[in-house]
Amino acid sequence: xxxxxxxxxxxxxxxxxxxxxxxxFYTAFSQLPKxxxxxxxxxxxxxxxxxxxxxxxxxLAKKIKNLQKLEEQLKAFDKGHTPDDPMxxxxxxxxxxxxxxxxxFFDQLEGQKRDLSxxxxxxxxxxxxxxxYVAGSVGLMLLPILSANNEIDDSLRESAVSLGIAMQLTNIxxxxxxxxxxxxxxxxxxxxxxxxxxxxxxxxxxxxxxSFIELWESIAMEAERRYGLFWDRxxxxxxxxxxxxxxxxxxxxxxxxxxxxxxxxCLQLRNYVPEVKMMGLVLxxxxxxxxx
Length: 292
Known about the structure:
Elements lengths: L4 H17 L1 H7 L4 H22 L4 H19 L7 H12 L5 H14 L7 H23 L7 H21 L1 H8 L6 H6 L4 H7 L3 H23 L6 H23 L13 H16 L2
């Protein structure tokens, strides 16, 4: 199906957003067939808008108002009205081309609401529930695109959600210091902090210690379990999507190793995957899929 000039511009707008905001995601998803890549870019632009609404420097009242406005736009979109905006026009085209479900988009906004009224995480179960809303929901948004030619059942949904949760846990493990220092937030579960005798404010002054490493690894193990669950079901995704999605997961999983290689310093350092390693992982994945 040919795209109008306007729609090409709308998708280009969305592509600029993912390219500027997430090098790893763009590196992976730009490998998709063009139509599917464009669809991913539009969904990413929606999620970025929701996230930026909450992470802005605006007063809390304005953040709440802006998030309510976005939710009202989504409700109108669900009823067939398309706001006059590049992201919404691109998203309408995605909903026309694929068997999309609007529910995870609302779940994403619920996750952002929880961020605005953040009160900490009581335990790992609460952390994973929160991670579903802000990230697992994204897996469900993308599923009709990445598995357009296969039946989407509960097993496949679980795989997509697990990948999203694993990625969010990875974010939290990477950003312990930044979250506390810049946003006064602690996403590490309260029961684990108590169990290991850790106070983040003291840790920020004293540095990483063995107890913190044990706590960090306990969450990393859960993230790695969820990455594994996703990788075990990679063949359930469309053949033309397996390589890019596999790469996206590998690149994000590599952040965990980057923190380890930096002696678990996620307090003062911003850990990332070096470009050379990223390219190595992409080549490794390409060889793996060529053998199939």
